[in-house]
Design a protein that fits this description.
This protein is mainly alpha-helical and about 70 residues long. The chain has 2 helices and no strands. It is rod-shaped and about 70 Å long.
Length: about 70
């Protein structure tokens, strides 16, 4: 958001409402970035868990064959 846009909002709707809008927009943008990072981390965690489960299955099958 440009400074001219912010000033236009404040002029049209008043300072308190304009400030609330600007802060809400900032909060939503910040939360979106954090949620994107969280989503990426969850996908990475899922992949690691799948790899660990696959490794455990292969090692447990090998030990059953040895018995």
């Amino acid at each position: 958001m440009q400074m001219d846009d912010a000033l236009s909002i404040i002029t049209n709707v008043g300072f308190p409402a304009g400030l609330c809008f600007i802060l809400l927009r900032h909060i939503l943008h910040t939360m979106e970035e954090k949620l994107d990072k969280l989503d990426l981390s969850l996908h990475e965690l899922i992949e690691v868990i799948k790899e660990l489960n696959d490794g455990n299955r292969h090692s447990s099958k090998g030990s059953k064959l040895d018995e």
